[in-house]
Amino acid sequence: MEVYETIKLIGSGAFGQVYMVRHMREDKLYVIKKIKTRDMCQKDRENTENEVRLLQKLRHSNIVAYKDSYMDREQYLNIVMIHCEGGDMHNKIQNQKGKHFPENQILDWLAQMALALYYLHDKKILHRDLKTQNIFLKHGRVRLGDFGIAKVLDSTRDFANTCIGTPYYMSPELFKYKPYSYKSDVWAFGCVLYEMCNLRHAFDAQSLNGLAVKIMKGSYPPINSSYSWGLRDLIGKMLQLVPNNRPSIIEILNKPFVKKRVFQYMCEIFSGQYPEVCLPNDIDDIYQDSLKDQAYKLNLMEIIQQQIQNGNGISALDFDDQSQKRPPKRQGQRAFLEKKVQKDKEELKKQIDEKLKIEKQIKKLEDKKYSQNNKKRQQQQILSKEKIPVNQKNKQISNNNFQQLQNQKKKKNQNEDFSLDLIERESFDQKNGSTSKLSEGEDDEQKSQDQVILEEDNEESEYEEIDAKIELMKTKLKEKTIKINTLKESLKANNKEYHINVEEEENNDKIIEEEENIYYENEGNNDEQEEEDEEDYTFNEEECEENINEDEKINYNPQYYKIQDRIKLFIHRCEAGLGNVIYEKAYDFVKYNQQNTSVEDMRTKLVQILQADNIGFWHLVDQIIFLEELLLTIPQVLK
């Protein structure tokens, strides 16, 4: 400690103490976290070393910078961090005393916190304890800190199973003992933004059980209506019960009104416009390489460079700010939605009328095509009946004439040869006449066939033209159908949003008043409310067992699972108040030493482990051990 002069104690906890110090040579303020490693087990020591290694790797303008670490003579590990003179966000909110932050300020903090989390998640790191107490301010900028329980994931598909975090910011999956990934940080981020807007926790209760019930139901008072719809909608999406329904950090950064703030912030940083920024002795302020990498990933770097080179105002870039698309005032928002719904209805009616008109045209063309086909078919049938081959007719006439001559020869004698010759001549002339007539008929028939072929060609071209028109009409019909379906979906969504807006407008004051009444009633009936919350908590836990079949539920022993839930609940309380490492150490000591150690010795040792302020957790640890032993005597499944 020769290099650093201790100024004051900032805080203390299970891990050790935090001091504000002054560097003797640099004459700058720093923060030192002193961790006692001498009495640590191997596992705790490895966790501490992991934290130091993690801090050494983090280099971002919106993350509290690591300066140094060393071991002092008393075997304390000293981690030296940059001092943030603005304090933490929790104190900033408390100092507002009911006066709401301007929306521009909240959006600036939102963009900077999102960049810090994007940097962590890109390195496969979960913060797992994001809260207002761990968000610090320096020169008006956000610094994310306290990575004591952060976890590095080995792959993007990995999940952290240990339940760590502050109860007010814990996501529903943690209370359900389910694995979680980056979306748990998004939930905590949403809770922080809610607290900035409403100056109170999103989820609050008098007991951990009651808090768990509210979180798992997603029950929180409405966000202050003075803020834009875009901001309120984003917070609502971040507080979705199902993790997959929450946006990722990159999706948050790509929201137009957030991206606009990111652009402005980066322009100020890279151009040196930010107050007291880029000082040579500020370590965290010169970590701009990671910020530049993010600018490239968000496709902003080229635009930022053009802005800086041209010397244009930062506001010159026109982002599509979604937060301004809906009026911030509730009355204006209602009128806007009503007008939009009416416009959608008119457009839908117009498209439906056009669709009906196209359908009529298609039907008319198909009827015309059918009638022409029918007419053509009838003509072909008539022609096929009337058409007799010329050679066949000629042959038939010749055969008839020959038969007549033979008959006449038998009836008449040879004296009538002269008359017979006359008859033969007449029949020959008649034959020649018939043949000539048939030839003339054949010529006429050939002419009629040529005419039919020409008519068929004309009809064929007409059919092709009709088919082309029908295909065009059907294509238009499909386009109209798709457009009508899209308009119906849009109208349905806008209708729903309009009714929600109207209902919220009518009931908002009542909801807030009811929430406040419930909150104050809970303070007066703490014990009774705790019992009711425990019952609700158990019920909701049973509902969340999705992988258990109905037949298996019937055979389960409810007493067994009730005790098991109580054990898990007590463990959550201990981990939330003490941290995972201290709880495990106290649990191991009580479990293996309570039989052969006196009460006074037990208390003395637990004071060393838990600190005097946390000695009350001894009772909870003892209850956990007792219930675990009791659980061994109860059958899990009923016969």
TrEMBL record:
Pfam families: Pkinase
Record-level Gene Ontology MF annotations: ATP binding; isomerase activity; protein serine kinase activity; protein serine/threonine kinase activity
Membrane spanning stretches: none
Family matches, as PROSITE patterns: PROTEIN_KINASE_ATP, PROTEIN_KINASE_DOM, PROTEIN_KINASE_ST
Reaction(s) the record says it catalyses: L-seryl-[protein] + ATP = O-phospho-L-seryl-[protein] + ADP + H(+); L-threonyl-[protein] + ATP = O-phospho-L-threonyl-[protein] + ADP + H(+)
Cleavable signal peptide: none
UniProt enzyme class: transferase
Entry-linked InterPro entries: Kinase-like_dom_sf, NEK_Ser/Thr_kinase_NIMA, Prot_kinase_dom, Protein_kinase_ATP_BS, Ser/Thr_kinase_AS
EC number: 2.7.11.1
Domain Protein kinase: 4-258
Region (Disordered): 315-336, 368-395, 424-460
Swiss-Prot/TrEMBL keywords: ATP-binding, Isomerase, Kinase, Nucleotide-binding, Serine/threonine-protein kinase, Transferase
Residues engaged in binding ATP: K34
The protein's name in its UniProt record: non-specific serine/threonine protein kinase
Organism of derivation: Ichthyophthirius multifiliis
Taxonomic path: Eukaryota, Sar, Alveolata, Ciliophora, Intramacronucleata
